[in-house]
Automatic annotation (TrEMBL):
Superkingdom in the source lineage: Bacteria
A Pfam family per the record: Cupin_2
InterPro entries the UniProt entry points to: Cupin_2 (IPR013096), RmlC-like_jellyroll (IPR014710), RmlC_Cupin_sf (IPR011051)
Cupin type-2 domain residues: 69-132
Protein name: Cupin domain-containing protein
Stored Gene3D superfamilies: Jelly Rolls
SUPFAM superfamilies hit by this protein: RmlC-like cupins
Amino acid sequence: MTPQELDARIVRYGDLVPCKTAFIDAHTPGSDQKENFTIIGGGVSESPDQHVHIKDTPGFNIGAAGQPPKCRNSLHSHRTAEVFFVLRGRWRFFWGRWGTAGEVVLEEGDIFNIPTGIFRGFENIGTDYGMIMAILGGDDAGGGVIWAPQVIEDARDHGLVLAETGKLYDTRKGQSLPEGVSPMPLLTEEELTAFAEPSAAEVVPDFVARYWDLMAVAADAPARVIGPDALLTDRPGFEVDFITRGSIGEDAYTTDRHEVLMPVRGYWRLDVDGTRTVLNPGDTCAVPPGARRSLAPAMTGEASLYRVRNTDDPAGPTRAH
């Protein structure tokens, strides 16, 4: 692999291109300052302005959300897995029809495998700009976002209308729905009953892993975070491992799976088919199947990263609520 080919498979944190009009709540007060990033795959953005860094998907999508303090992402659901880990800041995740069924606060490095079939939202409760990285199941990320009815109604009051096609129209800019296209219908009360309302006691133990717990577990070998035999048992169409300085050697290896590397702390030296680079926190690297690679911390000090690989499992909602 040439240096140019490897560079094309890396999205650097400093090169991320934000979209401020990605979703229906882009004008809603309290949510109008968030930035959405589509890193690998098309994601679930509803805006044609969304920049996609790497279009080819490995069986899942990678994205990110950046938000200033007190900025909130509105209640929504997905048909496939949605996994977040905190890169920067302190975040509160909440869920349920009105966001009151349960909540959990995540610190830097913590990971949350959000149960499918629930409405969820999140907000930056830190004191500075924060960033969370996301893994979405499936090549098409489940076909889009399912919004809680009040989110669609609030957005309409602030000039944004979501069409049944999943495309946004901004009435403040004079846009209107094309002839023959209807607004996205609100979920009925009967349909809403299908969305679970689990408590924090039901969710947190089985769906959240804490960074410092993972650092301890991965002291000598990579920690299995998400997978059929992992700390957070699941089969979402991908698996997630957590790697530290002491849990991986410098020996080269290959795999027949797509592998995405996402550093959390420290700097990581990566060699792929004879080409060397360094990955920094917030970078995302997609290593193709069959490539010979080695991975090791490039400097002394704390070092950790999440490694995501595709599996043969379907990307649908495989978890029990």
